[in-house]
Design goal:
Layout: H1 5-15, H2 18-24, H3 30-37, E1 43-46, E2 58-60, E3 62-70, E4 73-80, E5 83-89, E6 97-103, E7 107-112, E8 118-123, E9 130-134, E10 141-145, E11 157-162, E12 168-173, E13 182-188, E14 196-198, E15 214-221, E16 227-233, E17 241-243, E18 251-252, E19 265-267, E20 271-273, E21 276-283, E22 286-292, E23 300-304, E24 314-317, E25 320-326, E26 332-337, E27 345-348, E28 358-361, E29 367-375, E30 378-384
Antiparallel strand pairs: 1-10, 2-29, 3-4, 4-5, 5-6, 7-8, 8-9, 9-10, 11-12, 12-13, 13-14, 15-16, 16-17, 16-19, 17-18, 19-21, 20-21, 21-22, 22-23, 24-25, 25-26, 26-27, 28-29, 29-30
């Protein structure tokens, strides 16, 4: 149930934040309400704290992700020191506007369900982890806290993914977490309005059956019940983590069981192109590209990617991937494959003057690069329409946002 800030403020003077939980649980006994209140996130409507001072003419930030709702509409999110910021464009990157600015944040994740519906998960040092949701492109936001994350914050990161407009999952990573530093999982079945902690099997597994010296990172769902967590492991167990029951139980998906030896490895999460899935792995037996034609049940190595690649290959289509190598201080070489990594085509790139922090491809030919530079409060982005050979900025007037985009909405 959604409440305005005004009604919530009046109610909170009497019952505090639990009034929202009580409303959500109407029909239960008082004892049942109290027992379940801590397990249901409270949803409230309002605006997160925003900065009133403009960005300096140029500043540095850490872009962490980009999401496309349609070719002309995209969102970029990241951290400016301890401030979470989200920018939006509806003009194909020519103009941008800041739609979210939240101070005191050190972890953030984002999902765009449509051109107007966006979810942003954040963790602050002094408060619980929260999920901010907008249904109007960032004009107004509702907030739902993740239960139990005030005393056990998601200090190492939050990863969120949705498989439908209703079903989503969050992985919370913390220094005091169990194997792979995972503190817990949270699920929603109402599009992020409320979240419930999910019981999981990380703490119940005996030592050696789950990764215990590493870090989980990107979460990706392929269905309401199926999903993967990419892993970086000091003692490689041969694959990412996988679930087949909606995130309640996880196991090592031993894609490469022959790698179950004591060495470092990193597995990405699978990316699906129809019934074909692809993923990458960095191991002591090579930097691998893998493919599955059985919806992720069985995998085979289809090729290797350049060992000196600046980033793991970006999977752009079935059998297709892209990466780059910094050949010298000012020279960059792109590598692309169309056969799963068996052969790579290299070509010199133009338009790159510094190493972008994040690169994204919406198709094998169209890609975006987001740099760490902010110009006049606008993220400095580059675009390619030829598969990464040439890059240029689509920003209007050298990066200055248009007058109608100056204000924060």
């Amino acid at each position: 149930m959604m409440r305005t800030l005004a009604s919530l403020a009046v109610a909170s003077t009497v019952l505090g934040a639990t009034v929202v939980v009580t409303t959500l649980l109407s029909g239960c006994s008082t004892t049942q309400k109290a027992a379940r209140a801590s397990a249901v996130s409270a949803t409230r409507t309002g605006q997160p704290p925003r900065t009133t001072a403009p960005y300096p003419a140029s500043a540095r930030w850490t872009p962490l992700g980009m999401a496309f709702a349609k070719p002309s509409t995209a969102f970029v999110y990241g951290l400016d020191r301890t401030r979470a910021v989200v920018f939006a464009t509806t003009t194909g990157g020519r103009t941008w506007r800041m739609i979210l600015s939240h101070h005191g944040v050190y972890a953030i994740s984002m999902n765009a369900l449509s051109a107007r519906r966006l979810l942003v998960a954040t963790q602050t040092p002094a408060g619980p982890a929260s999920v901010w949701t907008t249904a109007n492109g960032g004009k107004t936001w509702s907030q739902a806290d993740l239960p139990g994350t005030t005393s056990s914050p998601c200090a190492l990161g939050i990863s969120m993914d949705f498989v439908t407009s209703s079903h989503g999952l969050i992985a919370c990573m913390s220094f005091d977490g169990g194997p792979q530093q995972i503190r817990g999982f949270f699920g929603t079945t109402d599009g992020g309005r409320t979240w419930r902690p999910l019981e999981n099997n990380f703490t119940s597994h005996p030592v050696g059956t789950m990764p215990s010296h590493g870090l989980a990172h990107h979460l990706r769902l392929s269905g309401v019940r199926h999903g993967w967590l990419g892993t970086t492991e000091m003692f490689c167990l041969g694959g990412p983590l996988a679930t087949s029951d909606g995130g309640r139980n996880w196991h090592v998906d031993a894609i490469l069981p022959q790698l179950t030896t004591r060495h470092f490895c990193r597995f990405s999460t699978p990316k699906f192109f129809g019934s074909t899935a692809m993923m990458t792995a960095r191991t002591n037996r090579g930097d691998l590209v893998l493919e599955s034609s059985s919806s992720g049940r069985r995998w085979r190595v289809t090729g290797h990617y350049p060992a000196n690649a600046a980033i793991p290959p970006i999977l752009t289509g079935r059998g297709r991937a892209w990466t780059y190598v910094q050949s010298s201080k000012t020279t960059y070489t792109a590598y692309a494959t169309s056969d799963g990594g068996a052969m790579w085509k290299s070509y010199a790139m133009s338009g790159w003057h510094s190493v972008p922090a994040k690169v994204f491809f919406g198709s094998p030919s169209s890609g975006w690069a987001v740099t760490t530079l902010l110009r006049h409060g606008t993220p400095w982005v580059l675009h390619t329409s030829d598969g990464g050979a040439s890059w240029k900025t689509p920003l209007r007037r050298g990066g200055l946002p248009g007058r109608s985009d100056q204000r924060v909405r």
